[in-house]
Amino acid sequence: MTKRLILIRHAKSSWDAPFDDHARTLNDKGRTGATAVGDWLRANTYLPDEIYSSDAARTRETTDVIVTALGTAPTIVLKANMYHGQPAALMGVLQQAKGDTVALVAHNPGIAFFAEQIVAQPPDHRRFFDYPTCATLVCDFPINDWAEAVSRSGQVVDFVVPKDLA
């Protein structure tokens, strides 16, 4: 069997209001980018069964905008340990997942480092290693259970950033 992982960095957030980092929401560009990524996921039938998201406002909002564009109703789980989570924390969340297609929505630098560590071969895309806002990696794993997921075993299916979709 094959499991599919979709790694999404949160969309562009606002710096307008003077509140704490955890409470920052998306700006208009971020909402547009998240909608474009959701549309792209739907058009390519990259449809998650489960989405695990950091509990920060910008990741929750990114998740909500993408799910609206998908037109599906995946299970959504908010995880506090994904807020600025490092690769080990993201791997821990992934290894507990139950769906066949699972999305993780998190923050840099952790999600970029995790993306680099999880794939056998990086995609041929100039933005992969800096993983800009709303960057999205789709990769497959030849496993039956997410508990079997290990570094350097993901086979890249696709990678996109919102500017690619404009």
What this model shows, in words?
The chain has a single domain (3-165), classed as 3-Layer(aba) Sandwich (Rossmann fold). The protein is α/β, with parallel strands linked by helices and 166 residues long. The protein is globular. It has a six-stranded mixed β-sheet with strand order 3-2-4-1-5-6, sandwiched between helices. Helix content is 32%, strand content 21%. The model has no long low-confidence stretch (mean pLDDT 96). Strand 2 (50-54), helix 2 (57-70) and strand 3 (75-79) form a beta-alpha-beta unit.
Features:
single chain, 166 residues, alpha/beta, Rossmann fold, six-stranded mixed sheet, 5 helices, 32% helix, globular
- Summarize the helix and strand pattern as letters: EHEHEHEHEEH
* Total beta strand runs: 6
Biggest beta-sheet profile: 6 strands, mixed
Q: Enumerate how many helices there are, as a single number.
A: 5
Determine the CATH superfamily: Phosphoglycerate mutase-like
Determine the structural class based on helices, strands and strand pairing.
alpha/beta
Termini separation comes to 34 Å
Shape: globular
CATH topology: Rossmann fold
Main sheet: strand order: 3-2-4-1-5-6
Q: What is the CATH first-level class name?
A: Alpha Beta
Beta-strand content: 15-25%
Report the mean per-residue pLDDT as an integer.
96
* Rg of Cα set: 14 Å
CATH architectural category: 3-Layer(aba) Sandwich
Summarize the structure.
With 166 residues, the chain is an alpha/beta fold. The protein has 5 helices and 6 strands. The protein has one domain: Rossmann fold.
Show the helix and strand layout.
Blueprint: E1 3-9, H1 28-43, E2 50-54, H2 57-70, E3 75-79, H3 87-96, E4 101-106, H4 110-118, E5 136-141, E6 155-160, H5 162-165
Parallel strand pairs: 1-4, 2-3, 2-4
Antiparallel strand pairs: 1-5, 5-6
Helix pairs in contact: 1-2, 3-4
